[in-house]
Write a structure and sequence with these properties.
2 domains; mainly alpha; single chain; Methane Monooxygenase Hydroxylase, Chain G, domain 1; about 140 residues; 5 helices
Length: about 140
């Protein structure tokens, strides 16, 4: 009987201890929650203030589309030329190449010859692809 009472007290004590630990853990996030509440409140307050205080006088000039200082020639939903897609893909490809080169240069002393030749093969494959695109005339704007 006494053993069961002691075990019940120990279980209750461990539950209280566990609750205190979880409450202390949640208190660590209190500054973040306060920051998020203040940021959301300020954002809503600024949007409400602009909606209430801003003058509303729509006219055709204000609601018209603006494209480089002149009216649009055609419908905006026309198809793009494939050349634009090619240029964007090449930009992303070589941008990723540069993103791989920065850590490689920083770790060049530690990676040894295998890391050096791995990057050279990567750059070689990219160079072969670039030369192929150049020879096929994909980079020409005719």
């Amino acid at each position: 009987m006494a053993d069961s009472a002691v075990s019940a007290v120990n279980q209750a004590g461990s539950g209280v201890q566990q609750t205190l630990v979880s409450n202390a853990f949640l208190l660590d996030f209190l500054p973040i929650v306060i920051f998020l509440v203040i940021a959301a409140g300020l954002g809503c307050a600024f949007m409400l203030a602009s909606w209430v205080l801003a003058p509303s006088s729509p006219d055709p000039e204000k609601v018209s589309t603006y494209e480089c200082g002149f009216n649009a020639f055609d419908d905006a939903r026309m198809k793009f030329d494939v050349k634009f897609y090619l240029v964007s893909i090449l930009f992303i490809l070589f941008d990723l190449e540069i993103a791989f080169l920065f850590p490689w240069v920083l770790a060049l002393d530690d990676i040894g010859p295998f890391g050096y030749w791995s990057m050279m093969s990567f750059l070689g494959i990219l160079l072969v692809g670039f030369i192929y695109e150049w020879k096929k005339g994909a980079l020409e704007w005719n």
